[in-house]
Amino acid sequence: MTRKLLALSILLSAFLLGFSNPTFAAGSEEDKTSFIMHHVKDSHEWHFATFGHTHVTLPLPVIVYSGDRGLEVFMSSNFQNHETHEFGKEYAHEGYYIDEHDHLGRVDEGSFVELSITKNVVMMFIVMFILAWIALSAAGHYKKNGAVAPKGAAALIEPIVIFVRDEIAKNSIGPKYKKFVPYLITLFLFIWFGNLLGLLPGAANLTGNIAVTCTLAVLTFIITNVNGNKDYWKHVFATPGVPIPMLLIIVPVEIIGLFTKPFALMVRLFVAITAGHIVILGFIALAFIFESYTIGVVSTLMVTFINIIELLVATIQAYVFTLFTAMYIGGAVAEHAHDDHH
Amino acid sequence: MDLITPGSGLIFWQLLGFLGLLFILIKFAWKPMLAALEERESSIENALKAAETARNEMANLKAENEKLLAEARLERDVILKKAQDASNKMIEDAKVEASKQGAQMIENAKAVIETEKKAALAEVKTQVAVLTLEVTEKLLRKNLSDEKAQKELVDEFIKDLKLN
Question: Minimal CA–CA distance to A237: which of A223, A225, A226, A253?
Answer without folding.
Answer: A253
